[in-house]
Amino acid sequence: MRTFFTSLFALILSGLAGGLVAQWLAIATGAEEEYILVFMFSVLVTFMVTFVFFVAQFMTDPVAAVARTGKWLLIVFAVLLALLVALVLYADSGAAVVKKDIPMVVGFGLPGLVTIILHWLFVSWRVRRGLIKAQVGVGA
Predict the structure, then answer these.
(1) S-S: 45 plus which of 60, 66, 105, 112, CB 3.0-4.6 Å?
(2) How far does CA 32 lie from the centroid of its chain?
(3) In degrees, to the nearest 5, what angle opens at C-alpha 123 toward C-alphas 117 and 127?
């Protein structure tokens, strides 16, 4: 039951943080309707990260599993983001088009990174806290 509530609170916390970052970026860049994709992508990343960390909490060594999961999620997300940047730069070399697309790319990247990092911090904190309580004998 502890794992479920940890994942639920991490979902709410990281989803809110990612949404706030996306909202701030939308205001800062003067975004229009196309930024709806950024908000949808932010929600998708939040749900996927929640599922991956939920599964990681059931491993035999959850502290190490959550640490490895967070590290690999950040690596995979950074590589996908770099590929998206390369695609934007390669697809059309016009400076005006690239300048128009960069806020969207940043909008895809920054909220996702905030979501992953915050989720990772919260879940690892809860897993370590539960492990310490179990070792002391207080109960989880």
Answers:
(1) 112
(2) 23
(3) 145
CA 66/CA 27 separation, integer angstroms: 34
Burial profile 14-49: b = 16 or more Cβ within 10 angstroms, e = fewer: bbebbbebbbebbeeeebeeebeebbebbbebbeeb
How high is the pLDDT of residue 12?
A: 95
In angstroms, what CA-CA distances link 92 with 31, 110, 123, 127?
21, 23, 41, 46
59's torsion region: left (phi>0), alpha (psi -120 to 50) or beta? beta
Tens-digit pLDDT profile for the chain (140 aa)? 888 999 999 999 999 999 999 999 999 988 888 789 999 999 999 999 999 999 999 999 999 999 999 999 999 999 999 998 888 888 766 777 777 788 888 899 999 999 999 999 999 999 988 777 666 665 54
Query: In 1-140, which ranges are E strands?
Result: none
The contacts of residue 6 (CB under 8 Å, 6+ apart) are 57, 122, 123, 126, 127
